[in-house]
């Protein structure tokens, strides 16, 4: 590139004329009038309209000098950011205040419409077909209640277990399940509400009314909304349970709801029954029946092969007569009254 040389004479020719003032403007005029800023500011409350105005202004200001065009774009961008933030806050507040559609109904109409319950204990051994037909309708799906952070609506939890109706009367249903189904494996968080479903899949809210002090057992009360019933499931004393006798297990293994499996009582150990009937996550809290349809246990646990590779079909249930231990429960609400009614009704159904 050729070098450019400027001589002193040329610099002298560019000197400021004598009659021209040396005072330059200290401040440029506003690139955007104040009244325009003031008139556009209320649009932050109307984000869709602000978006349209911004689009139109962006096209209309294409012919302005860069300084003015930049001022318009910067101001509108600021308004859009503020409007978006205010709209988001307003949406969250609206969701928090406005009632959201409830997942759970006030009751289980499928159960309330039912007038006939199986006559148990059966005089003869139930076949697997009879057990499926007679006993499955007594089993429910149980899930702990969870609340979304912006709503107080009761929603199903992330896990499910099974429950068994041990008594039904005109007021409602007493349901037994495993405590860890509701309180979690650590059983540190005591929840007062659960959701219950029958075969239709409709959820209904129910109350936790009792927790066993030492065993993995819990009682739930589901109010009745319509109809009448008088049913008590017979609970067999653990002393009458025999090793080797056939059993039925009903539950929801891996969310395969109302699955029936069979096996035998492999072993008795105080309040625990070891069984050979297949059990998987989702069976917890489900009933263990003998051949006469009497409740002999509540499924509580299994040995996970991932932790014990040598284990094979090692499953356990709490003896059902632990449900009848009057002094072994921590009650809440009307739990003591409901439990007493259940105990009184047992002598008419037990063998």
Task: Note down, in words, how this protein is organized.
This protein has 2 domains: 31-97, no CATH class; 104-346, Thrombin, subunit H (Beta Barrel), CATH 2.40.10.120. It contains 8 helices and 16 strands. It has helices at residues 8-13, 34-40, 47-60, 66-97, 109-112, 128-135, 179-183, 335-346; strands at residues 104-105, 139-147, 154-156, 161-168, 172-177, 193-197, 203-212, 218-223, 231-232, 246-251, 259-269, 272-275, 287-290, 295-302, 315-319, 329-331. Strand 6 and strand 7 form a beta hairpin. The longest helix has 32 residues, at 66-97. The chain is elongated.
For the biggest sheet, the summary is:
6 strands, antiparallel, barrel
Q: Ends: how far apart?
A: 114 Å
Percent of sequence in beta strands: 25-35%
How many alpha or pi helices?
8
Coarse shape = elongated
Relative helix content? 25-40%
In short:
The chain has 351 residues and is of the alpha+beta class. Helix content is 25%, strand content 26%. The chain is built from eight helices and 16 strands.
Task: Outline the fold blueprint.
Elements: H1 8-13, H2 34-40, H3 47-60, H4 66-97, E1 104-105, H5 109-112, H6 128-135, E2 139-147, E3 154-156, E4 161-168, E5 172-177, H7 179-183, E6 193-197, E7 203-212, E8 218-223, E9 231-232, E10 246-251, E11 259-269, E12 272-275, E13 287-290, E14 295-302, E15 315-319, E16 329-331, H8 335-346
Helix pairs in contact: 3-4
Keywords:
351 residues, alpha+beta, 2 domains, 16 strands, elongated
């Amino acid at each position: 590139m050729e070098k450019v040389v400027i001589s002193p004479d040329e610099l002298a020719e560019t000197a400021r004329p004598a009659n021209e003032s040396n005072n330059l403007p200290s401040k440029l005029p506003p690139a955007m009038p104040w009244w325009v800023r003031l008139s556009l500011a209320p649009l932050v409350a109307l984000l869709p309209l602000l978006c349209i105005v911004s689009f139109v202004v962006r096209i209309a200001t294409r012919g302005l000098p860069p300084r003015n065009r930049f001022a318009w774009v910067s101001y509108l961008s600021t308004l859009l950011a503020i409007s978006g933030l205010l709209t988001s806050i307003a949406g969250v507040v609206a969701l928090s205040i406005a009632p959201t559609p409830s997942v759970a109904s006030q009751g289980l109409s499928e159960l309330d419409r039912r007038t006939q319950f199986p006559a148990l204990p059966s005089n003869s051994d139930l076949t697997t077909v009879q057990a499926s037909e007679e006993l499955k309708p007594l089993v429910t799906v149980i899930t702990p209640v969870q609340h979304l952070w912006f709503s107080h609506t009761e929603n199903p939890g992330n896990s499910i277990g099974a429950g068994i109706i041990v008594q039904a009367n005109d007021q409602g249903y007493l349901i037994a399940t495993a405590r860890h189904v509701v309180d979690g494996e650590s059983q540190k968080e005591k929840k007062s509400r659960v959701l219950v479903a029958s075969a239709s899949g409709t959820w209904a809210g129910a109350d936790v009314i009792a927790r066993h002090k030492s065993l993995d057992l819990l009682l739930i009360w589901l109010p009745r909304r319509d109809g009448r019933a008088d049913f008590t499931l017979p609970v067999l004393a653990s002393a009458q349970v025999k090793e080797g006798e056939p059993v039925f297990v009903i539950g929801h293994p891996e969310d395969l709801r109302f699955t029936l499996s069979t096996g035998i009582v492999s072993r008795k150990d105080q309040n625990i029954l070891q069984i050979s009937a297949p059990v998987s996550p989702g069976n917890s809290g489900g009933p263990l029946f003998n051949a006469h349809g009497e409740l002999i246990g509540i499924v509580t646990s299994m040995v996970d092969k991932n932790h014990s590779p040598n284990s094979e079909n090692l499953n356990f249930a709490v003896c059902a007569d632990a449900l009848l231990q009057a002094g072994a429960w921590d009650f809440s609400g009307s739990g003591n009254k409901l439990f007493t009614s259940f105990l009184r009704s047992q002598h008419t159904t037990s063998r």
